[in-house]
Design brief:
This protein is mainly β and 143 residues long. Helix content is 13%, strand content 43%. The chain has a single domain, classed as Immunoglobulin-like, CATH 2.60.40. A hairpin with an 8-residue loop joins β5 and β6.
């Protein structure tokens, strides 16, 4: 067993206390907009606003949300994907947040896809997976 002490350990402790190592890369989700498989949500924001697109998920049953394509970079920029669990233990459901910054006035579409029980693939492996998979669409307007 290797035990580390000294400056690196102190720096790691400082980062953990500051909240930089606690699991979430982004502490400010901004305006949260909820979506779901099979729905289209209209979103209107001002330039310079941080926002998150939120979808309910449960990886233990097969949910695997991804950003299908980045939005028009002149209108919005992708920051990160964050996950929040609701409860402790194996099988806890939660929410996945796709965090963005709005930029210049314009419109763009953001599509999130849940490929249910696809594993590392982006294609549903069987009929049940195809039925359970789907997209949440967000039509974004920045004013």
């Amino acid at each position: 067993m290797i035990r580390r002490t000294g400056a690196p350990a102190i720096m790691l402790a400082a980062l953990l206390v500051a909240g930089c190592g606690g699991g979430s890369a982004v502490s400010n989700l901004g305006t949260v907009v909820k979506g779901a498989k099979g729905s289209t949500v209209r979103v209107e924001l001002r330039s310079g606003q941080r926002f998150s697109l939120a979808v309910a998920d449960n990886p233990s049953v097969g949910d695997n949300w991804d950003l299908v394509a980045v939005p028009d970079p002149k209108v919005a920029s992708f920051i990160s994907e964050e996950r929040e669990r609701k409860g402790e233990g194996v099988g806890a459901a939660g929410t996945t947040y796709f965090v963005f910054n709005s930029k210049r006035p314009g419109t763009t579409q953001i599509r999130l896809r849940d490929c249910w029980r696809c594993g590392r693939s982006t294609t549903p492996p069987d009929e049940e997976s195809r039925r359970q998979s789907g997209e949440a669409v967000f039509d974004l307007t920045v004013k």
